[in-house]
């Protein structure tokens, strides 16, 4: 099996194997199936990175649930507003719903903080965050909703299984870290 790869001429080494990822996702799904029994959660995947994780996770979920996707756009605002974010495609019917936000990775946590603030505007019944990867040492703000974590990883750049390096590598079926 290939353990070292290059993406954009940057070297990466194998970090999480396909079967390791699959096993962890099955366990996460079991936990969700138990925790949301008799409820109808709405899973919101955050594009682009979560597309493979959400797809594999949903195949193991046996609840009556719905799935939506959002995409976070960042652009320069005026000098007073600085960077402006926008949650494109946010469903507008979240009031009273049980929401599970699905991410590939939480790094600084700033993206998730923004997403949560937009979701709470609609007064959902509950909100949980489910992420495949979490870098605790990089976190800048506490995320109390972070109830489902696949792997806690060191503060190193990773690629594969949805995660990109400069747009490339999302199609790798294992996760690699920079060497
Ligand atoms: O915790 P943070 O430091 O905010 O980083 C995490 C975010 O960064 C990545 O998305 P990115 O903006 O690279 O877009 P992508 O999903 O299209 O790759 C990832 O998918 C998260 O959304
Ligand atoms: O380590 C990472 N890899 C790819 N995308 C990311 N977005 C935040 N952190 C990362």
UniProtKB/TrEMBL annotation:
The primary site where this protein sits is cytoplasm
Protein's UniProt keywords contain Magnesium: yes
UniProt KW keywords: Cytoplasm, Glycosyltransferase, Magnesium, Metal-binding, Nucleotide-binding, Purine salvage, Transferase
InterPro entries according to UniProt: HGPRT, Hxn_phspho_trans, PRTase-like, PRTase_dom
Catalyzed reactions: IMP + diphosphate = hypoxanthine + 5-phospho-alpha-D-ribose 1-diphosphate; GMP + diphosphate = guanine + 5-phospho-alpha-D-ribose 1-diphosphate
Cofactor dependence is on: Mg(2+)
At the highest ranks, the source species' classification is: Bacteria, Pseudomonadati, Bacteroidota, Sphingobacteriia, Sphingobacteriales
The family annotation for this protein states: Belongs to the purine/pyrimidine phosphoribosyltransferase family.
Please tell me the species this chain comes from: Pedobacter xixiisoli
Protein name per the record: Hypoxanthine phosphoribosyltransferase
Citing just one GO molecular function, the answer is:
hypoxanthine phosphoribosyltransferase activity
UniProt-listed Pfam families: Pribosyltran (PF00156)
Q: Return the EC number.
A: 2.4.2.8
- Which GO cellular component terms, listed alphabetically, does the Swiss-Prot or TrEMBL entry include? cytosol
